[in-house]
Design brief:
Blueprint (H helix, E strand, L loop, with lengths): L2 H19 L12 E5 L5 H11 L5 E5 L7 H11 L5 E4 L13 H5 L4 E4 L4 H11 L1 H11 L2 E5 L1 H4 L2 E6 L7 E4 L4 E6 L8 H11 L5 E4 L3 E6 L2 E7 L6 E7 L2 E6 L3 E2 L2
Parallel strand pairs: 1-5, 2-3, 2-4, 4-5, 6-8, 8-9, 11-14
Antiparallel strand pairs: 1-10, 6-7, 9-12, 10-11, 12-13
Protein name: Peptidase E
InterPro entries: Class_I_gatase-like, Peptidase_S51
Keywords: Hydrolase, Protease, Serine protease
Length: about 260
């Protein structure tokens, strides 16, 4: 073999070797689907817990105040809660104008590290979300690994159904997005009618078994499974309520107190 052919062959072999070495891994890492819910309002410690779930420093966290009709009071309270936290708080209003908002809801929400839904009227919120296709965007966010969360209406929305005070005169059933495939009861011990109604609905078969949460407790779900339960004090808890041999069974989860 002459010297010129040897050099060409050596160069080709080296190039092929390099290409083989830099081939990307074709196995895509499966993203975890993350939801953190509380039974009541979103305390700053809960917000920081959600920030930790993003795995990012200074995460961008969006607040959806739809359930209060984008109330200025609710929005102000959100920014106050975040004022001393190492996060980038953002608010996405739904009562907007094409003249004032130039980015789509999808572009905004899918650019977040976490999305927190506020409390209020769950029924009205779900109707507005479906009209604006926010329900579809939130599913994309969930599948993308963006952390979802909220309390009260902001927790009910992620389940198949649960108890709501969104209608006049009495607590009634509301349908959620069904990302978590059970029922849910927020404000479990904070509001007297909640627990007996929840038990009655499960016993009658109208509700699936599901998760009941006190105002100052929270559950972290990963891929639809309970990963961890946290609380702000010893008195607050989360429970799985089910039917066993025709009777209600209430199982309390072990918890960690957030410092």
């Amino acid at each position: 073999m002459n010297r010129r052919k040897f050099v060409q062959l050596s160069a080709t072999t080296a190039l092929t070797a390099n290409i083989t070495l830099v081939q990307p891994n074709t196995e895509l890492k499966e993203l975890k689907k993350k939801i953190f819910i509380t039974g009541g309002s979103m305390d700053s410690k809960f917000i920081m817990y959600i920030a930790g779930l993003t795995g990012k420093e200074n995460p961008k966290i969006c607040f959806l105040p739809t359930a209060t009709g984008d109330s200025l009071v609710t929005i102000t309270r959100w920014y106050d809660s975040c004022s001393d936290l190492p996060i980038r708080p953002y608010v996405q209003r739904l009562f907007i104008s094409s003249y004032t908002q130039k980015e789509s809801f999808e572009k905004v929400l899918l650019g977040m590290d976490a999305i927190i839904v506020g409390g209020g009227n769950t029924l009205n919120m779900m109707v507005i979300w479906k009209a604006q296709k926010i329900d579809e965007v939130l599913k994309k966010a969930w599948e993308k690994g963006i952390v979802l969360g909220g309390g009260s209406a902001g927790s009910l929305c992620w389940f198949e159904h649960g108890t709501t005070d969104s209608r006049p005169t009495e607590l009634t059933k509301v349908e959620g997005l069904g990302f978590i495939t059970t029922s849910h009861c927020p404000h479990y011990h904070a509001e007297a009618p909640r627990k007996p109604l929840y038990w009655a609905k499960i016993k009658s078969g109208e509700y699936k078994a599901g998760y009941a949460v006190d105002d100052k407790a929270g559950i972290y779900f990963e891929d639809n499974q309970v990963k961890k339960v946290v609380a702000l004090d010893e008195q607050s808890n989360a429970y799985f309520v089910s039917l066993e041999k025709g009777e209600i069974k209430e199982d309390k989860f072990p918890k960690e107190i957030l410092k």
